[in-house]
Design brief:
The protein has an eight-stranded antiparallel β-sheet, with no helix packed on it. The N and C termini lie close together (6 Å). A hairpin with a 5-residue loop joins strand 5 and strand 6. It has one domain. The model has no long low-confidence stretch (mean pLDDT 87). The chain is built from three helices and eight strands; from the N terminus they run βαβββαβββαβ. The chain is an alpha+beta fold.
Length: 158
C-alpha cells in the first residue's frame, strides 16, 4: 500500500519539542533503535544485554526485536529495536532529551511513535535531524500555523 508521509527537515530543539507535544495524545507506543554493533551480548550466552541507560523505563518494555526494515526500506543489516508502551515514566524519559540530536548512536536512536495498531505517527532519522509524520487532515493547519514546512514524500508500507 502506498501511503503519503511528510518530511520535516532540520529538526531544531523547538521543533522537536513541538513534535513531542503534537504526538503526545496520538501515540500508544514508543520505539527506539540500536545498531547491531552497539548491542551488547553475553559472552557465554547469545542473548542481548538490555542497556543500563534504559533501566528507568524497562518496566514499560513491551518487546524487543531485530529487523532489516528501517525507515521503510530494507537494510543490509539488522537493527535491534525496543518497543515501549507510552506511560508517564516513558514520557518523562523522552522529555529529558529535549533535542533530537541527543538520540544519536551509541545511545538509542531514531525515536519513533506508533498508534495502538502499531501504525506510524512520527518516525525520525536522528543523525539527519529528519522527522517523518503521518498526519490526519486536521493536523495540517497545526503545522502550518506553527511555521513548520511539510514536504510530501510517498512510501510503500507492507
Amino acid at each position: 500500500m502506498n501511503m503519503k508521509v511528510y518530511l520535516i527537515e532540520n529538526i531544531t530543539d523547538p521543533k522537536w519539542m513541538f513534535l513531542l507535544d503534537w504526538v503526545y495524545t496520538k501515540a500508544h507506543y514508543f520505539v527506539i533503535a540500536k545498531d547491531p554493533d552497539k548491542v551488547r551480548t553475553s559472552f557465554f550466552r547469545k542473548e542481548k544485554i538490555y542497556p543500563k541507560k534504559l533501566d528507568q523505563i524497562k518496566s514499560s518494555l513491551v518487546d524487543e526485536y531485530d529487523s532489516k526494515e528501517r525507515w521503510h526500506t530494507r537494510q543490509i543489516f539488522s537493527t535491534h529495536f525496543y518497543r515501549y508502551k507510552l506511560d508517564d515514566k516513558v514520557w518523562k524519559y523522552i522529555k529529558s532529551k529535549p533535542s533530537l540530536n541527543m538520540w544519536l548512536s551509541p545511545e538509542p536512536e531514531d525515536p519513533s511513535f506508533y498508534d495502538k495498531t502499531k501504525n506510524p505517527i512520527l518516525e525520525t532519522i536522528s543523525h539527519e535531524l529528519y522527522a517523518f509524520i503521518f498526519p490526519q487532515k486536521d493536523d495540517f493547519e497545526v503545522f502550518k500555523s506553527n511555521g513548520i514546512e511539510l514536504l510530501e514524500v510517498k512510501i510503500k508500507i507492507d
